[in-house]
Amino acid sequence: MKVIIVKHIDIEGPGTIADFLDDNDVPCEVIDIFNGESLPNSLSGTSAVIILGGPMNVYEEDKYSFLKQEDEFLKEVIEEDLPTLGFCLGAQLIAKAKGTIIKKAPEKEIGWFKVSLNENGSNDPIFQGFPGEFDVFQWHGDTFDIPDGAVKLAESKLCTNQAFRIGNNVYGLQFHIEVTDEMIYQWMDSYRSEIDSLKGLVNPDQIISDTKIKSENYKAQARQFCLNFFKFLRPS
């Protein structure tokens, strides 16, 4: 059993997902695709695939050639219905692999926001133990339509499509379940120019304050999510 994790930039790592896998002695391989590490030629022996976020856009294939390779890889993953999870850019890449156009969102979501589950989401095993509305951390300017044949699971006031499921095991989440406090603070520093460009629409001090308040609940939420997604780790 091995979990493949695809990383697009150093500061957007697997965070809470890696913590869960380590706590449960599950081997994983982090592929730094931005720095030239190759995707596997075969899915044999792979138990799950995690696609992380990143500052690039899915339609920037001329600038980031690895996005083309990742598109082909995800088409195979989806065809196999391998347990797969994409966060933010990762979700957009999954949607694109299913033929969905990725576009600019009406408004950027940066910071802490509420996400609401619809009836499908409330009944989906991935959100077992979650309330109908819960806090998530967001950092995105693009959005996806729900792919043909996929099931919409969640939405927010600013971005109507927040989560979907393809088949039985492939999930895309626009928000970041995987973030740790340290990752949030690092993003605030590294992506400060983006915050400044929004001319006061995003308050970094408020984000830091909210993170301190919400941290413990968010860690517990992330663990519950991992228990749900990695249910194949537990005997039936």
TrEMBL record:
InterPro entries in the record: ChyE-like (IPR044992), Class_I_gatase-like (IPR029062), GATASE (IPR017926)
Keyword Transferase included in the entry's annotation: yes
Pfam families cross-referenced by the UniProt entry: GATase
GO CC terms: cytosol
GO function terms (MF aspect): transferase activity
Ranges in a coiled coil: none
SUPFAM superfamilies referenced in this protein's UniProt entry, alphabetically: Class I glutamine amidotransferase-like (SSF52317)
Domain Glutamine amidotransferase: 41-180
Keywords of this entry: Glutamine amidotransferase, Transferase
Top-level taxon of origin: Bacteria
Name of the protein: Glutamine amidotransferase
Species of provenance: Candidatus Scalindua rubra
Classification of source organism: Bacteria, Pseudomonadati, Planctomycetota, Candidatus Brocadiia, Candidatus Brocadiales
